[in-house]
Design goal:
The complex is a heterodimer of chains A (428) and B (295).
Chain A (H helix, E strand, L loop, with lengths): L19 E12 L2 E12 L3 E5 L6 H9 L6 E6 L2 E2 L10 E4 L11 H11 L4 H14 L15 H13 L5 E5 L7 H18 L2 E6 L2 H7 L2 E6 L2 E6 L1 H6 L4 H6 L4 E11 L2 E2 L5 E2 L2 E6 L11 E5 L12 E6 L5 E3 L9 E10 L3 E8 L4 E7 L14 E5 L6 E4 H6 L9 H15 L1
Parallel strand pairs in A: 3-8, 3-9, 6-7, 7-8
Antiparallel strand pairs in A: 1-2, 1-4, 4-5, 9-10, 11-14, 11-16, 12-13, 14-15, 16-22, 17-21, 18-19, 18-21, 19-20
Helix pairs in contact in A: 2-3, 2-4, 3-4
Chain B lengths: L13 H29 L2 E3 L3 E3 L5 H6 L2 H34 L5 H9 L6 H12 L4 H8 L13 H26 L2 H9 L4 H30 L1 H8 L6 H10 L4 H28 L10
Antiparallel strand pairs in B: 1-2
Classes of the chains: A alpha+beta (428), B mainly alpha (295).
């Protein structure tokens, strides 16, 4: 976050093969007159690692089942390499799945499990043997080939499940929350192992998770889902830095939200090279501000949604905890919002503080340690000024706010709720 | 044994000691001792006044191979086998359908299956006799609708015995099968399909192996009782359709040949042991370690 968040970043992962592999066009799924998926359209490129991210009940697993062929869409089309898949059963699609609980066959050995798909395809025995051995070497399980899956650890079972799916050389590998049954450390290890496998195999991955951290660290692109609709599709950086709406903002990472009143609007103007630049707006945050600083006004790039924004309108400024700067209240060089530290947690690389602003809003700040200042810490109830560098905020309109209800309880559970609590209090 | 937390009062409490003694005492006196007696008797000689006497001999086991009895054994095994096959062929899809029914209906369906147990099986066998008789309900109905001109022989045939055994033992086949089908995870079937298996292939490669313990324990619960239910053969089978159970009963009560009756019992027990071993092996194969379901 050293750059202006309004500059979007493209990762280079999709440059090698920009050909579309999977095309979802207007997918709809209805169960018992309840629409669980609405207007799902998405192009997935060859070799891409795409993550479907959302709270439980958002439809991400249903979408995966439609792609796998376990269920058929009510309307819409699924093209894989240009071939229509909708209507075909799972066993007729060149797509394989890694299941949440692995679904390994307990009556077969590890090697037999991995060989299953090839055996069904009547691949010659000698070839099956070679490919199974290669596959098991790839997932580093060759020494366990003759064990039963239930004698293996969770991480090992996970790798058998991946090997069993990948050995069929699918065009697309679907992964349904495959890491959720593992403990934290193993999960991190499997994350990098999955990335390695995906690079080595060059297979396109569609990965389902409710864990935003997992999604951010693994994906080329993330499709954020809620209530059966895509909320936003973009690279992890786009999703994190420039969320399309408040739901995405709150679901991904931790969020501080400030209301601000528009004090001035400056129209588009041609710059020195003659290109028309976005106009700018001047806002004042609706919080108690230090009056001894340079200015309480902030001059921002005008966001795209705000073409008809007027003086006096209210907009929302979104800031991540790591964007905030905390200053001494007597620091005359910086302005800022007045508050006091009510909690301060040492996190190793960062110091995470919870600050109550003068009007009671609770916000969260996360600062990197200063090597030169080992005593860097706050006392409880210490008065501070909170500010940030202009341009680091992301602006969302009031309308966006009105559209989004408070996020429901979900399986990401305490984690997300805790994160949202801060933002909700702040936004209310 | 005393694992229930309420009763887990440590290892040396008087309650625990007493419970253990009771269980062990019960098993020794009412299970182990009678079996030892039966085995012992089977190696003795028949005596007309005292029932059994020395010397020790294996004559009783040799007599089992005697064509006269051997034929009865084979015929008994045949009827019990047909009964088991019918129970399995009907019970397998039956159990699968119940396990697929809505969860709130399943207890009711199982209840309906078990409901006949509330009536004594002897009474139910006599009821079958009324159905099967020459002037019974089945013949009367068939005559009335004109399918047949004269009553057909149902009672006192091999078919009547098999029908009776099937009727009485069917629930014992369904119960263990229902248990394995409810344990069968749906994602196993999806995984098989996902890897390219048709429905038939999934059945042979995944469903059948994973439900084999249920099949074996169902067979166990049907085949052996089917060979022993002498009153079914007595009431429905006439003199030509005897079961091993009839031989055992006759030797003890009519022929007064205890060693031979005991030898026939030992044979049944051995058959049970073989099936139990098969069940154990198949359970191991699918990674289950709990063998108590059948016993």
């Amino acid at each position: 976050m050293n750059d202006s968040p309004t500059n979007t970043h493209r990762t280079s992962a999709t440059t090698s093969a920009d050909k579309v592999l999977l095309q979802l066009a207007g997918l709809k799924k209805v169960y018992d007159q309840t629409e669980v998926l609405t207007d799902i359209s998405l192009d997935i490129k060859h070799g891409e690692f795409l993550t479907l991210l959302g709270p439980s009940g958002c439809g991400k697993t249903t979408l995966l089942r439609l792609i796998a062929g376990f269920e058929q869409p009510t309307a819409g089309a699924i093209f894989l390499d240009g071939v229509q898949m909708a209507g075909l059963p799972a066993d007729k699609r060149p797509v394989n799945t890694v299941f949440q609980q692995y679904a390994l066959f307990p009556h077969m050995t590890v090697a037999q499990n991995v060989a299953y798909g090839l055996k069904l395809k009547k691949v010659p025995k000698a070839e099956i043997q070679t490919r199974v051995r290669e596959m098991l070497e790839m997932v580093k399980l060759e020494h366990l080939a003759n064990r039963k899956p239930q004698d293996l650890s969770g991480g090992q079972q996970q790798r058998v499940a991946i090997a069993r799916a990948v050995i069929n050389r699918p065009k697309l590998l679907l992964l349904d929350e495959p890491l959720s049954a593992l403990d934290y450390k193993l999960r991190l290890q499997m994350q990098s192992e999955l990335k390695r496998l995906q690079r080595e195999l060059g297979i396109t991955f569609v990965f389902v998770t409710h864990d935003q951290e997992e999604a951010l660290s693994m994906s080329d692109r993330i499709a954020v889902m809620k209530d059966g609709r895509f909320q936003q599709i973009g690279t992890p950086i786009e999703i994190y830095e420039t969320p399309a709406n408040l739901f995405t903002a709150k679901f991904i990472g931790e969020t501080n939200l400030f209301k601000a009143e528009v004090k001035g609007v400056y129209p588009d103007q041609p710059d020195r090279d003659g290109r028309v630049t976005n106009g700018r707006i001047e806002v004042e945050v609706c919080e108690a501000q230090a009056q001894d600083g340079p200015t309480t006004l902030r001059n921002l790039r005008r966001p795209d949604f705000a073409n008809d924004v007027q003086v006096g309108d209210i907009v929302n400024l979104l800031l991540r905890p790591e964007d905030l700067r905390i200053y001494d209240p007597n620091d005359k060089e910086h302005g800022g919002l007045l508050g006091r530290v009510i909690e301060s947690n040492y996190k190793g690389s960062t110091l995470d503080s919870i600050i109550e602003l003068a009007n009671g809003h609770i916000i969260k700040a996360s600062e990197f340690f200063d090597e030169d200042d080992p005593s860097f810490d706050y006392k409880l109830n210490e008065a501070v000024k909170v500010s940030w560098v202009d341009g680091w905020e992301w602006v969302l309109s009031e309308d966006h706010l009105a559209e989004q209800k408070a996020p429901e309880q979900n399986e990401a559970g305490q984690n997300v709720l805790a994160q949202n609590k801060i933002a909700q209090k702040d936004g209310s | 044994m005393a694992g229930n937390s309420r009763f887990n009062l440590g290892s040396k409490t008087p309650f625990r000691t007493a419970t253990l003694w009771l269980i062990w005492g019960w098993l020794l006196i009412f299970t182990l001792l009678p079996n030892i007696l039966v085995i012992a008797v089977s190696f003795l000689t028949r005596d007309s006044s005292a029932f059994i006497s020395l010397p020790v001999s294996i004559d009783s086991y040799i007599r089992i191979i005697d064509p006269l009895y051997f034929e009865v054994f084979v015929h008994s095994l045949w009827m019990a086998g047909i009964t088991t096959v019918i129970c399995l062929l009907l019970g397998y899809p039956f159990a699968w359908l119940i396990s697929k029914a809505k969860v709130r209906w399943q207890p009711l369906l199982m209840m309906l299956l078990i409901l006949p147990f509330w009536t004594n099986s002897l009474v139910r066998t006599y009821a079958l006799k009324l159905l099967f008789a020459n002037n019974g309900l089945i013949n009367k109905t068939l005559l009335a609708i004109g399918v047949i001109d004269a009553p057909i022989d149902i009672l006192y045939t091999q078919g009547a015995v098999i029908a009776g055994l099937t009727y009485l033992l069917f629930p014992f086949m369904v119960l263990p099968l229902y248990a394995v089908f409810t344990d069968l995870r749906n994602d196993m079937l999806l995984a098989s399909q996902d890897l390219g298996a048709s429905k038939t292939q999934t059945f042979w490669h995944v469903v059948l192996p994973l439900t084999t313990p249920g099949i074996i324990s169902g067979v166990l619960l049907v085949l052996l009782p089917a060979m022993g239910m002498f009153y079914v053969a007595d009431i429905l089978g006439g003199s030509r359709n005897l079961l091993v159970g009839n031989i055992i009963k006759n030797q003890f009560l009519d022929a007064r040949d205890w060693p031979f009756g005991a030898a026939a019992s030992v044979l049944l027990t051995l058959a049970m042991a073989v099936l139990l071993l098969a069940y154990r092996a198949s359970s191991r194969r699918i990674g289950k370690t709990d063998f108590n379901e059948v016993a």
